[in-house]
Amino acid sequence: MSLRRREVIWPKLRGDSFQKTSDPTNSYNCVAFALGDTQNWHDDTRYGKWDDRAPRDGKVESYAKYFQLFGFVTCEEPVVENGFEKIALFATADGEFTHVAIQMSDGTWKSKLGSLEDISHAELTSISEGDYGTPRIFMKRETAIQLSAP
Amino acid sequence: MDTVNLAYNKQGYAKASTFHMTNRCRYSFSNVKLDSAETWRTAMAQDWERQGEARVVSEVERMFRSLAAKWREERSASSTMRQEVNDTYLDIIGLGPDVIPYILKDLRRTSDHWFIALRAIAKTDPVRPTDRGNIERMRDAWLLWGEQEKYLE
Fold it and tell me: What is the value of pTM for the model shown?
């Protein structure tokens, strides 16, 4: 991807505001990454891993419903809380799901960028205001809960 | 075989360069702005790949390659396949059944997300429901189908 294209998609993601933490891959996406699954691509299309208990309409609320099936519950603020992992679901102005980022125990964030690489970024807002829109829903689950296939 | 003649100026533009192998095919590469080292390397690699292909490039293949490159640039940040199905992706579907061999070859090389396009064009789906989400298994299912249907050698 060209630098110019990156600047359009993530206008705030520049310089030392992020670090790449993996090679690019189209084998998994941010949803899978947030669920600890790097073997599958999770989305609500025919060819994504999904659970029909969550609607297939692309809306951020439907993705929140999907994460609920893995033990996540909505929460108010993205502050670090011992014993919980937290995620932030991004959406466009009209409510289309665009991305999910994972909060680390030190308060920083990790993201899988589409078919590109995983990155760590200090601020959640580093990837907002471009194509990803803004963080719309925050969720958390106890760190002891393990991934289970839907 | 004619060769590709490319010249890059100091501003990073690849000057127009065309070669003809037959009257039926033509490759053109003109005034592409190379605005980063990454883009430069990619363009150079693609040029070498082109030079090594001493064969006729069909119009459908040429269009597919052009559209696929555009689509990859446009969709690389997309988190879902729903977002990846943009206008360029639909243009590729619009190329019809003749594009299936090229999509399958690209799928074999890149494991990229051509599943929706293939199903739309071929009007079949060899992927088992239990394999949905697993890119490698879905790729393998489509490649096996392509071999069985003689789209791939």
Answer: 0.78
Strands (E), chain A: 18-20, 73-75, 84-91, 97-103, 109-112, 118-121, 134-142
Asked if the Cβ–Cβ distance from A131 to B75 is below 8 Å, we say no
Contact B133 A40 (CB under 8 A): yes
Quick: pLDDT tens for A77-106: 889 999 999 999 999 999 999 999 999 999
| C-beta separation of A10 from A130 below 8 A | yes
Domain span including residue A102: 3-142
Contact call for A116 and B76, based on CB within 8 A: yes
Lowest mean pLDDT among A10-24, A26-40, A109-123, B23-37: B23-37
Q: In this complex, do B111 and A27 lie within 8 Å of one another by their Cβ atoms?
A: yes
pLDDT in tens, A24-45: 999 999 999 999 999 999 999 9
Name the domain count of chain A.
1
Which of B77, B111, B119 faces A131 most closely, judged by CB atoms?
B77
pLDDT at B8 over 70: no
Residues of B in contact with A116 (CB under 8 A): 76-77
Residues A86 and B148: their CA atoms lie apart, in Å, by 46
Say if A55 falls within a structural domain.
yes
Residue of B nearest to A57 (CA): B82
Integer angstrom CA distances of residue B114 from B11, B89, B104, B121? 35, 9, 8, 11
- Nearest CB among B35, B39, B113 relative to A26 is that of B113
